[in-house]
Amino acid sequence: MGAKTGENFDIIVVGSGASGGWACKKLSEAGVKVALVDAGRPLLESEFSEHKPDFELKYRNRAPEVVTRTRPIQKLFCDEFNYQWFANDLEEPYTIPANMPFTWVGRLRVTGGRTVVWGRQSYRFSDLDFKAASHDGYGEDWPISYADLARYYDQVEEYVGVSGLAEGVPELPDGRFQPPMAFTCAETLFRNRVKQKLGWTATIGRTANLTRPLNGRAPCHYCGPCHRGCVTHSYFNSAFTTVADALKTGNCTHVPNAMVYKVLMNAETNRAAGVLYVDRNTREVKEVRARGVVLCAQALESVRILLNSANRQYPTGLANSSGVLGHYLMDHIWVGGGATGEFPDLPAEPTLNGPNRPNGIYIIRFRNTASGQRSKNFLRGYGFQGGGSSNFNFKALGYGEAFKQAVMQPVTTVGMGGFGECLANWDNYVELDPHPYEVRGKRARYD
Ligand SMILES: Cc1cc2nc3c(=O)[nH]c(=O)nc-3n(C[C@H](O)[C@H](O)[C@H](O)COP(=O)(O)OP(=O)(O)OC[C@H]3O[C@@H](n4cnc5c(N)ncnc54)[C@H](O)[C@@H]3O)c2cc1C
Ligand code: SF4
Known about the structure:
alpha+beta, FAD/NAD(P)-binding domain, 6-stranded antiparallel beta sheet, 9 helices, globular, disordered C terminus, binds flavin-adenine dinucleotide, binds iron/sulfur cluster
């Protein structure tokens, strides 16, 4: 058994990201003594580099090897500016069966977790998501509905600061928005055409970037690369919002660099009693005690801790009486198909170093809607994220004077990529019946 921190807490929150930040804020503001135990190191404001040009970096952000040497997997989401916030893949390897490839990206090791680098797009689910099985017969409904969550969505959006445009489309409920960011000319044209020709709604991205001051945080000044931090705290990052609030109460003790690997149980009360962690700096095993443990260590890491917490009473891990812990993980499709088009007739005057809006546009789900037509060949729905802008023609070919002239010719483009739910792949396939889909307990095939 490792060394004890000596202090007894009411609650341990493991992880300081999106969920852990909220847990420690709410609990410590309610007077509960919280230990925030996090694998990440403290995030320093001096590390924020959103205003730093490439040429100030040692390798000008042009040498991918700098990142791939230690982050061969995380490289998908990081660069020379921010790779040190991500887990070192060599120090934290994982295994996968040969026939089940899985790229475990987005593993952060700083206070704030993924909210330090996230894309900030913030959308509400509707009952078409929560009660999807009732709508189309596939899978299972969530045990909660939109009405159960609506007031929490309100609370979170008002605190986080989500800018957006109310559209009154039931598939994507409107929220408590700060004023929306503006569309570009190309996006306005696109939005109007899409509505006119297809009846779909292309709205401005609902994004956790401020357009009005909030709790001492300044509105976004459109510098662009939020994934490198933000000195004005204008995007939502739990490190400088929820976690900072929790620490301010005096009820929250931050234990950084602490890789939790086991939840300790009190066999008599059958309740969690603390956690064991490895101090990432000293490699010592340490223990923290509390009356309860909240696991917010990211979906996969939390599951790993529960499996590692097996004991005599729970030999297959905690919260695993069903045996499904760690199985049936579903992710979402990311930029799965899309298109780009040019607007050659749109007048454009691109500039260098102009405003860089950290947001795009979003086409709201239009397929298999609550009241619309049902597709016979496709289940559920998806949205498109993208954007449109005018720029110099950096793809121009040639060299010399002609090339310089070609680069100066502006091009206006709009591009979109699909984001959708990934459905469970059942074992026995049956052909799909149209309405309603009769597939419960069998296997359906959706091409
Ligand atoms: C590049 C990128 C873009 C994204 N864009 C969007 C977007 O636009 N919209 C959206 O809704 N979502 C987006 N996401 C997803 C979103 O960031 C996550 O869903 C969200 O942060 C999850 O919150 P979490 O609290 O579960 O985990 P995280 O925010 O990742 O926090 C997990 C915390 O747990 C800690 N931890 C991990 N293991 C341990 C351990 N063993 N012991 C102690 N601490 C541990 C980590 O250090 C971290 O602080 C994006 C993610 C990435 C990586
Ligand atoms: S674009 Fe806005 S939110 Fe992002 S780093 Fe710049 S000021 Fe901050």
